[in-house]
Design brief:
Blueprint lengths: L3 H17 L2 E4 L4 H14 L4 E7 L5 H14 L2 E6 L6 H4 L5 H19 L5 E2 L13 H7 L5 H4 L4 H10 L25 H16 L5 E6 L2 E6 L1 H9 L2 H12 L3 E4 L17
Parallel strand pairs: 1-2, 1-4, 2-3, 6-7
Antiparallel strand pairs: 5-6
Helix pairs in contact: 1-2, 2-8, 5-6, 9-11
Amino acid sequence: MMEKELQAKVAKLQLLLKSYGSAAIAFSAGVDSTVLLKAAKEVLGPEQVLALTVQSVLVPAEEVAEAKAFCQAEGLRHTVLTLDPLLYYDVRTNPPERCYFCKRLVFDKMRETAGRENIAHLLDGTNASDGQDYRPGCRALKELRIISPLQEAGMDKADIRAYARELGLAVADKPSAACLASRIPYGEELSAAKLQRIDQAETFLRTEGFVQLRVRSHENIARIELLPADMARFMASGLYEKTVSKFKELGFAYVTLDLQGYRMGSLNETLKGK
């Protein structure tokens, strides 16, 4: 049973969705976009909803596979857009505003696709918690008039996870994800090889049972961020030796464990005060 405050937010979300008539939804298979897609299906019906997923070197391969599987299971129309953002100088050179330029590229493509399907409204899963970190991509969403109904309904991350449980969604406790470029310091040029190496390194750690993590890549150094509660197991089990061997096999010269542990947007810490 939802609390009254959450019920009111969900009711507002449903009214917003109903007002659109039909909607295309940027779908990454994360908790936010999954909840939004499921809610849109329930309010508008599957025939009035189109899920749009981007496949690129910036997106972990398993997320695209999860997006495909979810849409198939839910009987939803789903289009996968293949893009290469690294062809664009303002993305490839990885400036602090990289996310802005990338979002412009991605959502322009999504808007074109929605238009061909005669869908006027393009939605994304931005929520009320997303103002807590440096997010230049939000400016691109505003400029392109992308609708963020979770944010408009006042739903933060905790609300969305609670609503996901009410909807019976398996992603309710899924860890937060982010584009693979967020693992590389600003100013260090992006390449497909670097991004694929990060994806493989993080996949390895997930197969070893770690859930919330990041592998930040500083040229030839891997900086592993784990939850503080997971660090003891990582060190005591001898897993760190296996990790070093695997990461060197992937091309890292040095492998480090960040003693501050996992935190969202740790590479943005260098921007503070600038």
